[in-house]
Amino acid sequence: MADSPEAIKRHIKLYLLIGATLFACTLLTVAVAKFEFLDFGSRGFGTADMVIGLLIALFKATLVALIFMHLNHEKKMIYWFFGMGIVFGFFLIALTGLAFSDPIYFEGFFGR
Amino acid sequence: MSDNHDDHHDHHNPGFLQKYIFSTDHKTIGLQYGLTAMCFLLFGFYLMMVMRWSIAYPNEPLPQWMSWLFTEDWKAQWLNEGKLPGTTYNMLGAMHGTIMVFLGIVPLGFGAFGNYVTPLQIGAPDMAFPKLNMWSYWLYLTGGIMMCASFFMESGAAKSGWTNYPPLSFFNDAQYPHQFWTGQTQWLLGLVMLISSSLLGSVNFITTIINLRAKGMTWMRMPFLVWAMLVTAFLLLLSFPPLEVAGIMQLVDRLFGSSFFQPSGLYHQQIGLSDASGGGSPLLFQHLFWFLGHPEVYVLLLPAIACVAEIIPVNTRRPIWGYKSMVYGVLVLGFLSFIVWAHHMYMTGMGPAVSTFFQTTTTLISIPSVILLTCLLISLWGGSIRFTSPMLWACAFLPMFGIGGLTGLPLAFNLVDLHLHDTYYVIGHFHYVVAPGILFGIFAGIHHWYPKVTGRFMSRTLNHLHFWPSLILMNTLFFPMLIQGMAGFHRRWYNGGDAYLSTDPDSVNVFGKTVAEYLDLNIMMSWSAWLLCAAQIPFIINLFGSIKWGKKVESDNPWNACSLEWATPTPPGHGNFIEEPIAYRGSYEFARPEVEEDFYPQWKKPVGKSDTGSSQAD
Amino acid sequence: MEIPYIVEPRKDTGLNNSKIAIWLFLASEVMLFGGLFSGYVFLRVYADYPWPERTLPVLPGLINTFVLIGSSVTVVFAWVSLKLRQWRKFQIYMTITIVCAALFMVLKGIEYKAKFAHQAIRLDDYTVIEGHAHPQGAHADHTDHGDHGDHDGHAAHGAHGPKKNLNISAESVQINLRRVDDIYYEVLGAQYDDGGFVLADEVKLSGGAVLAKGAKISKALIEQAKDDFLDAVANNSELDIAANREAWVDVRAALPGKRYWEKDVKELLVKQISLRKAERKDQYRLPVPSLTFVPASGQAQISVDPYWGKLSNPKQGEKANLKLKDQTVIFGIAADSSIGLDVDGIDFRHTVMKAEEKGIDPTVAINNSWLLQHENMKAIWEKHKLITAKLEERIKDKGHKPTENDIYRINWQEIAGLQEKTIEELETMSHAEILALYPGDIEGFAGPNHSKIEFPSITVPREQVRFESVFSPRWNTYYATYFTITGLHGLHVIAGALVLAYYLFFGRKMYNENPEWLANRVEIGGLFWHFVDLVWIFLFPILYLM
Q1: Can you list the alpha helix ranges (DSSP code H) found in B212-351?
Q2: What average pLDDT does the segment B385-405 reach?
Q3: Mean pLDDT in residue range B32-45
């Protein structure tokens, strides 16, 4: 059993380590956004900043979900639930995006 | 038989308030849901009758029997010499839709049947979280009352359709200093409450079904109703939050003046240039709305079809045909219903790629629907059918729902939809699904489980008086809509087409002449609607009268059914079962060779060695 | 039978009820925030105005991220302590968690407060200026504004008095009796009294009462007239309905089987209705739909918050009417409704965008803009052009170019930092030296600090204002998204903290009964807490850094 007192005692260090990683990653994201020498490709906010920012956030979120929320050793059913949320959330954004990106009118249709 | 069990079981004696009003018992909550929802249904029906008057007789004041509910001040403000002006028609129309969908059918199907029957069928003592269950009901009631109370506000109730599309909804009631106390805002607040209620309910349902199944109640032994409720709960759980988001965004738009859904340069004839920052997207609302909107259709449908699926095997005395395919069908249906929503939005200028995608998924989703219906139809084959009251309704459900479903297919195609969009054809289509379809399923369910709830049967004579007129009138009400729709009648004409009419024989106004040709159908439809209301009177008498005068049941299992709810005492006490039930086999084990009777209940201990206790999926 | 699996997991699923429920709830929360994020994405990608990127002060957001991550760690340790049956430690860790939650909300509150005090105006030529508005009338001569130095007094004064009201010298007020709202009593009652508004003409109410010419405006008077109006209308509507019904009976009898649209039916109906109405002639009452009041001295000042009404012509000294939301119309001459602003931000990006759409050279559009006709603003812009040039020079070797933001937007740091320097001084300095003059993150913790720094003033006449708002959801879709998402997130924080606090303060009984029960509940509460943290992990970069 993963949640026995012995196992938990072993995990204490891991929890601290993850906490430290999260702090470090946060600083890293801010550094990428703020410092000029970390401007990738172009000055200011650009695609690279967005991708890096989101990847770091995704990494942090994964750590929280896996370690703090115990998804690394959870029952199969929980993966189904959470997975469904993620999948349908993805559908919502992706298909709405598809609809937005494929308008039937041409640019300037409304006199713009 | 049942009484002594009851006494034995209710150790603690809760007071009246706790037992009937703030009850945490799933059965009481189910009944609360059912009765409240039926009241709302009647109210929604009434609004529709008023609307139908304006459609059939646009120049005539409302008759006395229709307008007695209004106060004089209300009539002075909202009627024009007793006739229905467009604004009032819009208000009634918006509220009719909202009430029927959110306050009527969903609570009746999911709230009432789900709450009452599901825990019984899986052999659970109650829902997993009884207190949440109670909260869910009270949130629903509060939300419903908030929405309906707005009729009496200075601004009147919401007026922009049950879809509440901005920017229309943004301008409605915008000219009131106290934005909070306007119909449109109250509608949104009510909606947020209803959504919260559904979320609590669906979490509760899924947990109950997953964790509280009785011993031996494996997945494939569960009655189809439980599966349907499980899928319904997932639909509510995952599709409602985006609408909640949309509702909250609209609330922020209204109360804090933001522009989530207001494009730049928005202009209104009376108000002028809107005092909003602009930059928002009205289409975004439609996407968020229909992301719920389409699964919502299945939220309405699945409980009803599930009731029918329970009733048909009992009354044909044979197992349901294709149980397994029905289960997988309903799962696929649930999944697909999340990715078809934009077929409601073909008119918003979607490009070919995205239209193709949604046309494909929409036609795909008809496959599982047809599987469900076909299985039910084939289940009748070779059965020894007993035409009991519930069976009557269930049998009528099949063709009626069939018409509703099949008339929907053309709408799945972009090209056809461009013509039919927002016409009475659409109205006819979904009313066929909801009224003679879903409502018939629900009537079937009421008749089927009534003996379990009260210990008495409902009257068959009154049922015939209810059933036959309803069946005929539903068709004379909704079928002409399909015809009118194809002729181009728009669904939001408050005067039924009077404004577009052309009666001059020399006129070149082709459309006006077409309108004239089909205008008389309005009268037939309206009279059908009013008579349909009269046809519900026997039902109401039956529903309440049978508690006292109905024929008593002779056993706990009056229909000789197989599923677990019939193993409880009648009516079931708090905690439902007297001893822990065990499911030895599937829930539709009719006409088994092992036993002498033609049914082999789930809870009955196996008799012979040959009995393997198999699931019905084999 | 009792409900099973409240604490112990069910064998085949391996889960207890609460665990299933919380994960289901989290799945729906994913959809909730998914919907919000989709709103953010599409509003941003398809925005038809320059998106305000990287516009929030990062420091409070960063601290909040640390606070929330910290609380996530402590909530894990609270659970660990329970599992190891260390009650005292549990209490400590849980207390830290809840203090973190409180700290988070306090910081959030500071941020919100700074935003709500910060005014923005989109001018008629789409120039955006930001700053703190001062009360109307207090800024008549903005050139000596810098002299009085009493900042606290100024701030205190700033808190009082309307800052952007619509003002009109009223010649008459017309009150719509159906729609007249409490707004009269709340907002305008005192002003009406001050102006000594009286009834313009004698009004004969339909009930027989007479309101004398010159009667003083009052709540009771208007209510009396309103009641009378509603009675009269209801009375007439009943008569109309009866007349219509009878007319239809007549028509049906005279022309059996004919439908309503047929010509003779229509004609007969019109005739019959007027006949039936004429029969009731003496029962009809003549409703008085509105009352008109005039000020005793011919003119009176009326001042209304822009939320309540709309000025038909904002140009000072011209004829105008002010239409309130309850359909009260105030006729008169537009008075000074200008907005005085201590400018801490200038943004020409929208001007440029619009100019490019129309094919106009952006430089020309900016030079011709209304704002740059003012000397103090012109000076800021000249300095900014110099700095942009220096920036371009400096990052040239890296192959980078200044962004639109760099070129067309002037931030508060720049305005504050360079106020004392002349353009000649600046020319001699390097870009890095100039940047060093800017106030740091601490000084502007939640945005420009108006109590420490004096910003240049400008008065914007109302006709130049295309749209104005404080930095609230109203200002643009970015702030709408920001407030809605962080607001909802904040509600989640509060709810989560309340649940965790419940276990901290009332968990002892559970712990004594069955420690595993409490551990289980704290795990569930913790899962929710981690999810709230997880959402913030995305919110921070998306809202603060992008």
Answers
A1: 224-256, 282-316, 323-336
A2: 96
A3: 97
> In Å, what is the CA distance from C176 to each residue of B156, B270, C289, C323?
18, 16, 6, 11
CA distance B581 to C312: 75
The answer to whether residues C174 and C331 touch, using CB atoms and an 8 Å cutoff, is yes
Q: Over chain B, what is the mean pLDDT?
A: 92
Which pLDDT belongs to residue C282? 93
> How far does C457 lie from chain A, in Å, by closest CA?
29
Q: What is the pLDDT of residue B18?
A: 80
The residue with tokens 């992301």 is B291
- Yes or no: say if C508 and C455 are a contact pair by the CB < 8 Å rule: no
Q: How far apart are CA A26 and CA C69, in angstroms?
A: 10
**Relative orientation angle of helices B282-316 and C17-45, to the nearest 10 degrees:** 140
Angstrom distance (rounded) from CA B363 to CA B427:
20
CA B134, CA B112: separation in Å to the nearest integer? 12
Of C488, C406, C530, C475, nearest to C49 (Cα)? C475
Is the distance from CB of B194 to CB of B102 less than 8 angstroms? Answer: yes
Q: Residue C58: list chain A partners with CB under 8 A.
A: 30, 33-34
CA B179 → CA B176, B261, B363, C473, distances in Å?
A: 6, 17, 43, 16
Q: Give the number of B-C residue pairs with CB atoms closer than 8 Å.
A: 223
Query: Are the CB atoms for B463 and B542 separated by under 8 Å?
Result: yes
What residues have CB less than 8 Å from C85, skipping those under 6 apart?
C515
Contact B350 A104 (CB under 8 A): yes
Name the neighbours of C, counting chains with at least 3 Cβ pairs within 8 A.
A, B
Q: Which long-range contacts (CB under 8 A, 24 or more apart) does B350-359 make?
A: B350/A99, B350/A102, B350/A103, B350/A104, B351/A102, B351/A103, B351/A104, B352/A102, B352/A104, B353/A98, B353/A102, B354/A95, B354/A98, B354/A99, B354/A102, B355/B414, B357/A95, B357/A98, B359/B412, B359/B413, B359/B414
pLDDT score recorded for residue B609: 54
Residue B68's pLDDT band, with cuts at 50, 70 and 90, is confident
C198, C217 contact by CB (below 8 A):
yes
Structure tokens at B33: 């849901």
Supply the DSSP string of B155-207, one letter for each residue. Answer: T-B--STTTT-TTHHHHTTTT-S-GGGSHHHHHHHHHHHHHHHHHHHHHHHHH
Closest chain C C-alpha to A73 CA, distance in angstroms = 12
Q: Which residues have C-beta within 8 Å of that of residue C149, sequence separation ≥ 6?
A: none
Contact B410, B77 (CB under 8 A): no
CA B60 – CA B71 distance, rounded (Å)? 19
Whole-number Å distance between alpha carbons of B149 and B146: 5
DSSP for residue C546: -
Helix-then-strand count for chain A, H and E = 3, 0
Q: How many helices (H) and strands (E) does chain B have?
A: 23, 2
Task: State how far the Cα of B362 lies from the Cα of B20, in Å rounded to an integer.
Answer: 44
| Minimum Cα–Cα distance from A61: chain C residue | C534
Give the three-state DSSP class for B394.
Answer: helix
| Category of B604 on φ-ψ map: left (φ > 0), alpha (ψ -120 to 50) or beta | beta
Contact by Cβ (8 Å): B209, B230: yes
The answer to whether the CB atoms of A30 and C62 lie below 8 A apart is yes
Please provide residue C431's backbone torsions phi and psi, each rounded to the nearest 5 degrees: -60, -40
Q: CA dist B579 to A109, B122, B603, Å?
A: 71, 14, 11
SS3 C173: strand
Amino acid, res. C502 = Y
Dihedral of alpha carbons B467, B470, B471, B472, sign: positive
**Closest-CA residue of chain C to A48:** C546
Count of alpha carbons within 13 Å of A72, Cβ hemisphere only? 10
Q: Rounded distance, CA B211 to CA C531, Å?
A: 23
pTM here?
0.94
